[in-house]
Amino acid sequence: MDQFLITGSSRIAGEVTISGAKNAALPLLAAMILAETSTTLHNVPSLQDVRTLIKLIAGMGIKIEKQGDTVTCDTKSIDNFYAPYDLVKTMRASILVLGPLLARFGEAEVSLPGGCAIGSRPVDQHLKAFEAMGAEISVENGYVKAKAPKGGKLIGCKFSFDMVTVGGTENVIIAATLAKGTTVLGNCALEPEVVDLANMLVAMGAKISGIGTSIMTIEGVERLHGCEYSVVADRVETGSYLAGALMTRGDVLTKKTSALLLTPVLEKFEDMGAVITTGDDWIRAQMKGRPLPVDIRTQPHPGFPTDMQAQVMAISCIADGTSTFIENIFENRFMHVPELNRLGASIQVDGHTAVVKGVESFTAAPVMATDLRASMSLVMAAATAEGESLIDRIYHIDRGYEDVENKLRSLGVNIERINTND
Ligand code: UD1
């Protein structure tokens, strides 16, 4: 298991190019299963989760290859509709293959993703929607077995999600593209990654209206063709590097990204004292003094994203005053708190609320990454702390941040990967 050795205290400054969004690439890769001709996807980040999904899709007999940041996929040779536990257990987003398999081939057997560290995260909404479209769903031996109704096609319907779910919305719009008739989906997630998926589906020949709104209407078509498409920029990676500027009186310019993707985050950065400037495809954060405290409430888009909660909390740890964080999306997403406290922060958690009393500075310590985004908050905190911090379990960060140590180094962070198997 690799570790990061970080020697603080760095001023985080410089330019960094943002990769394609992991959370968009995954549904786009799953959507490729729908196409009868070959599909090419550009700006795909090289990440563990992307490799996992490619392996899962290849296991179905599909020809899928990644070269550089481009993935090509040809589904002609598909010979099974099965997603095994071994791969699904490592990544919850694997459930996204259920929709396209069911819609195009009328059947699928996909392992249940089960719980994960940040909460129980069920997939009941995905399954409920497929049932509303006429699918027969059973859960046997930890696998979801799904079958389309007689004739092999899902049937368009009216369905409203009980809560806003990003993966649920994605899985169901994918499935509805090939359903018989029209599907009207209510309470859809508005996240930029959902919009990216819908746009790619349209490029494949799908008929979708209401993209980017909470009600989407999908008129089923007979078949979809391949297309050439490019993954949207990663808003969480963008926000994470900009956060480094706020923590270190630094100056970070993120390139190949868009301010439109992270308005709620940039507003909070400004509240914390940063000067934010933006262009068509770049965002710059400059910070002069100590951060100001902030109040954050995570919400579905366009609210403040839960995936930026840990990184902004790390900034608030060294703010001049007391901040509060209310986590509304996941029940157990404060696992970084004890680790930040080990680095000298003063945070108290009560249920869904964390109260952060700002301290002057972090102090170096050995810590453990607990989930993907939390790990970035620890890296940034360690970068500001004087001395050496060893961060364990960094496989979490490799799941979501492409080329992370080189990008951090280019911003002035003194970071070294230690392979403990050496
Ligand atoms: C996606 C993102 C993740 C982000 C999250 C919220 C990907 C690959 N991951 O995760 O980074 O943190 O959105 O923005 O895109 N829920 C149910 N039943 C369901 C589905 C969801 O109860 O069937 C609950 C979940 O437990 C959670 C909430 O709804 O509490 C939101 O989950 P959801 O939006 O589905 O998150 P993911 O798509 O898993």
Description:
- The protein is of the alpha/beta class.
- The chain has 2 domains: 2-19 and 233-419, Alpha-beta prism (UDP-n-acetylglucosamine1-carboxyvinyl-transferase, Chain); 22-230, Enolpyruvate transferase domain (UDP-n-acetylglucosamine1-carboxyvinyl-transferase, Chain), CATH 3.65.10.10.
- The protein has helices at residues 22-31, 48-58, 85-88, 98-105, 124-132, 166-176, 192-203, 235-247, 263-271, 309-317, 336-342, 372-384, 395-398, 404-410, and strands spanning 2-8, 13-17, 39-42, 63-67, 70-74, 82-83, 107-111, 136-140, 143-147, 158-160, 182-186, 207-209, 216-219, 228-230, 251-255, 275-279, 282-286, 295-297, 322-326, 346-350, 353-357, 367-368, 387-392, 414-419.
- The strands form 6 sheets. The chain has a 4-stranded mixed beta sheet with strand order 22-23-1-24.
- Strand 8 and strand 9 form a beta hairpin.
- The mean pLDDT is 95.
- The chain binds uridine-diphosphate-N-acetylglucosamine.
- Uridine-diphosphate-N-acetylglucosamine is lined by residues 23, 26, 92-93, 119, 121-126, 163, 165-168, 193, 305-307, 329-330.
